[in-house]
């Protein structure tokens, strides 16, 4: 790898990145050119990045290529663009797929963690000028979620990064930039789980188990995990799941099983799979009157949700959740502190550690359901 930069005027960096050239095909290690940060942007040396299910969903189905995926990451600021005052070279940061400008209507509201300026970016470009900061042999390479962490260096808007303590281990806390934070926040911020309540979680991946951890810490009396992979049960118990249901083992719809064993339905239900049909199932698993369903998964197909109006007439609620309701800049440092104080589990989600060149193996492990989080370690 060669690099050339100065504090005052950063230059183009040439480094390694794993580029997706077409849907569902192995990523290819390429020499990429990474442009200097533009105004209000920072360039980050990625230290660790973990593979999230959403990366796989997009890699299998989205049409924007060539592309550098990855959004759950930690790194060190290499250089800053004009107008950046929050960060300096050497700062430790988490990247975030949805930003916080702190000045728009949503950022100023306590009711939302959406940002009208730095919201979810779906077109593969930067928020600021709708361009890309990557190229291979002069050909533009597109971003993913305005992060693109499957690269030794990346450029992000300064509003899509969070400064963290240099004492926090970057190879662990990268998980807090998406999946673990999303699950904890869904339990605490979105559902606001109450002590003694009963909870069902559909899908026991990282997000589902983070919901379980959040429910356990709130004092839920029963946490049912629903998954077709029985190998997940032992791990799920570590995060607070008390009962395990495999829909394939029943001759009746799983929501009927849940309503029967719960005496009429659960207080809270979480859909963590990314299946809109399962959203309906989760809603039907809740009790009348106050049952709350939270959907967190990103569907690969059939994005429309269908449900009978009677569910809502009976007092049930369906809520969506993006990043667990956390305002990233305002709230993530406190989550990192909770981890450092051993108030939340993060390490236990990491089932594999792999070098950067083995990133396709990580994709295979997740597609086969053999890992929770695989942390990819960048070269020194």
TrEMBL record:
What InterPro entries does UniProt report for this protein, alphabetically?
ADH-like_C, ADH-like_N, ADH_Zn_CS, GroES-like_sf, NAD(P)-bd_dom_sf
User: Which positions make up the signal peptide?
Assistant: none
Query: Boundaries of each Alcohol dehydrogenase-like N-terminal domain copy?
Result: 39-164
Q: Output the Gene Ontology terms for molecular function.
A: alcohol dehydrogenase (NAD+) activity; S-(hydroxymethyl)glutathione dehydrogenase [NAD(P)+] activity; zinc ion binding
GO CC list: cytosol
Cofactors per UniProt?
A: Zn(2+)
> Gene3D superfamilies, alphabetically?
Medium-chain alcohol dehydrogenases, catalytic domain (3.90.180.10), NAD(P)-binding Rossmann-like Domain (3.40.50.720)
| The Alcohol dehydrogenase-like C-terminal domain, residue ranges | 207-334
> EC number(s) for this protein?
1.1.1.1
Q: Name one Pfam family in it.
A: ADH_N
One of the protein's GO biological processes: formaldehyde catabolic process
Keywords recorded for this protein, A-Z: Metal-binding, NAD, Oxidoreductase, Zinc
The reactions it catalyses are: a primary alcohol + NAD(+) = an aldehyde + NADH + H(+); a secondary alcohol + NAD(+) = a ketone + NADH + H(+)
Domain of life per record:
Eukaryota
The family line of this record is:
Belongs to the zinc-containing alcohol dehydrogenase family. Class-III subfamily.
Subunit field text? Homodimer.
Write the protein's name.
alcohol dehydrogenase
Q: Which organism is it from?
A: Gossypium mustelinum (Cotton)
């Amino acid at each position: 790898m060669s690099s050339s930069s100065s504090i005052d005027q950063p230059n183009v960096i040439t480094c390694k990145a794993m580029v997706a050239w077409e849907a569902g095909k192995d990523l290819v290690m390429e020499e990429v050119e990474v442009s200097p940060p533009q105004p209000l942007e920072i360039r980050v040396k990625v230290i660790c990045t973990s593979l999230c299910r959403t990366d796989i969903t997009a890699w299998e189905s989205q049409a924007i290529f060539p592309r550098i995926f990855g959004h759950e990451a930690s790194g060190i600021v290499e250089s800053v663009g004009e107008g950046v005052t929050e960060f300096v070279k050497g700062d430790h940061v988490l990247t975030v797929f949805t930003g916080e400008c702190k000045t728009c209507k949503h950022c100023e509201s306590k009711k939302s963690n959406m940002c009208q300026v730095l919201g979810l970016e779906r077109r593969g470009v930067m928020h600021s000028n709708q361009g890309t900061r990557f190229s291979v042999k002069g050909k533009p390479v597109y971003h993913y979620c305005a992060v693109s962490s499957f690269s030794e260096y990346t450029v992000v808007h300064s509003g899509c990064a969070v400064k963290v303590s240099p004492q926090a281990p970057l190879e662990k806390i990268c998980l807090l930039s998406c999946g673990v934070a999303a699950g904890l926040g869904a339990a605490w911020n979105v559902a606001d789980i109450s002590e003694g309540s009963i909870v069902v979680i559909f899908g026991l991946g990282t997000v589902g188990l983070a919901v379980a951890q959040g429910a356990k810490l709130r004092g839920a009396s029963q946490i049912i995990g629903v998954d077709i992979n029985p190998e997940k049960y032992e791990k799920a118990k570590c995060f607070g799941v008390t009962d395990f249901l495999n829909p394939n083992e029943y001759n009746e719809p799983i929501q009927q099983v849940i309503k029967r064993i719960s005496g009429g339905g659960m207080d809270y239900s979480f859909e963590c799979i990314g299946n809109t049909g399962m959203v309906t199932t989760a809603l039907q698993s809740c009790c009348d009157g106050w049952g709350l369903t939270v959907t967190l998964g990103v569907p690969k197909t059939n994005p429309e949700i269908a449900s009978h109006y009677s569910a809502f007439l009976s007092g049930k609620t369906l809520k969506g959740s993006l990043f667990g309701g956390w305002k990233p800049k305002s709230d993530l440092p406190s989550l990192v502190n909770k981890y450092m104080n051993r108030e939340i589990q993060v390490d236990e989600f990491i089932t594999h550690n792999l070098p950067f060149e083995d990133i396709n193996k990580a994709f295979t492990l997740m597609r086969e359901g053999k890992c929770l989080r695989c942390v990819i370690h960048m070269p020194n």
